[in-house]
């Protein structure tokens, strides 16, 4: 009887950071370690590892809770079953397991509430500051809610206990760069890479710094040198890192073929893999095609949209992420798939109307942007201006779950709309402010030259155009 009881209760083990949990299965423990490593490195096998852990020991509350979180995006019913199994085994669970269950039940349970999940993560990390897996989850919630200040608070709270961990520095770098603290972000990312040069999140964050500071050659050379370490990454991060490379080539006004080669060979080729997550690829593909479209490369953008347009009409990939929804909306409307585009827009409005009042209020800006994107795809620039008003700044729309670089394409849309809608003085003012932040971006100077020209300021237009040409020549690579 004693032996049987031991099996039911499970042996107390410690994970790789010292937190206690119960399982009598060595296979379960190994699978949990694999899940931790894959989650933090954006590894392809993280979902499989979590499910393997739960299968190896159905009585392990920690494994069941992680399996619930891993399964939730693709299998809500399965996630609910795992969460129920975790709840059933909390009686013998450790304090740490109960804390993890509390955070995850607020993320994937019937009473899902992101604000509650954040509060519970804050409490968990006070008690278990070495749990950088929970830190990563908390930061992801902050990202999708557009809260970089809180994300930084989370990581700074546990930094003293984790200075030996390379992952902590990538997690420190991201909110810093989102808050515009580029020097600090670069130092943090480099510190992580000094511990582990293959930390893909630290690589990604260092690229953000290079990109924001218009260090485009440095960005492409660095990222291409790192690219062999991305092979095991999720479809999202693999194609997202290549998206950064392509955008840096585009921003440096390199030959267009360089950008298209990255798109064709390094982003869309991911779709050929048997374990590909297609929606994650579409997110990065569409983000690049919209930038091409805004810069006047309409034919290559539409030519490439044609190859997966039918997939974008499939509602099964809608509402995975807000940013993806907005990009799909643009793609459908720009390709004259107006019925599908209208259905998407109405579906987004319905989605927001079902939220609680506080969240509804926040997400009204997302709906406003969705309406503008729909009209932009239709070529109705004056309507876009009327929807967004004279003081639009995409950085105020981070609730769609996008980084500064991802959301910046909507600012580029905005600049072109101002010019085409005849708001040239406003365009000159807005572009001047943006150029003071990113003086090395040729596209901004070209837009400024166009706005000056339309405003009758020919000499100023010539100066801006010459600046753009000089930058392009300097970047030539």
UniProtKB/TrEMBL annotation:
Keywords: Repeat, TPR repeat. CDD domains: StaR_like. The keyword Transcription regulation does not apply. Transmembrane segments: none annotated. It comes from the Eukaryota. InterPro entries: TPR-like_helical_dom_sf (IPR011990), TTC38 (IPR033891). Belongs to the TTC38 family. This is Tetratricopeptide repeat protein 38. It comes from Urochloa decumbens.
